[in-house]
Amino acid sequence: MKRFSLLHIGALTAALVSVAALTARADDYDKKTIVTLDQPTEVPGIVLQPGRYVIKLLNSSSNRHIAEIMNEKMDHLYALTFTAAAAKVEPSGKTVLTFYEGSQGHPQAMRKWFWPGDTLGQEFLYPKSQAVEITARTKHKVPEGDLPTVEESGQKLVPDNAKGHKEKESH
């Protein structure tokens, strides 16, 4: 009987380790990151108010350069945007977000996003008019790109930045 119990405990432990590994891989695949913004922050097509948000890559096998920005519950999509590959020299043990500096009463704008341990990340592409405004304020060239359509993304939720909303409050 004792041997049978140890066998069950071993099998249960192996099953739990497998589930934990799958969960870790899922976050690693979509790079799900929970961020807390302490000030208004511009992202492609919209300004986010201070709060907690989830940034993750769209679950797409054909395009690894579409990012979603959602509320923490992940039931409201604020922005769906194309990104470009970004690189840095040294990996970090934590998430790294970089910003274009806010000035003249305008909010900071999200620039690059790196997952912990990665030297390759994502640089946010802004719609042309927004990129021109940020470039004029910061004197840094902001990369341009159209916003993905809901059809391109296969998303069920329509992002606020596709509805023409400019400012949103966190939920």
Concise synopsis of the structure shown:
26% of the residues lie in helices and 32% in strands.
Radius of gyration: 19 Å
SSE string: HEEEEEEEEEHHE
Query: How many structural domains in the coordinates?
Result: 2
Distance between termini? 53 Å
Please tell me the overall pLDDT.
80
- Determine the oligomeric state from the structure: single chain
What percentage of the residues does DSSP assign to strands (E)? 25-35%
Strand count, sense and barrel status of the largest sheet are: 10 strands, mixed
Number of helices: 3
Q: Which percent bin holds the helix content?
A: 25-40%
Class by helix and strand content? alpha+beta
Silhouette? globular
Low-confidence stretches: 6-26, 165-171
- How many E strands? 10
Explain what you see.
The C terminus is likely disordered. The chain folds into two domains: 30 residues; 137 residues, no CATH class. It is of the alpha+beta class. Strands 1, 2, 3, 4, 5, 6, 7, 8, 9 and 10 form a ten-stranded mixed β-sheet that branches. It contains three helices and ten strands; from the N terminus they run αβββββββββααβ.
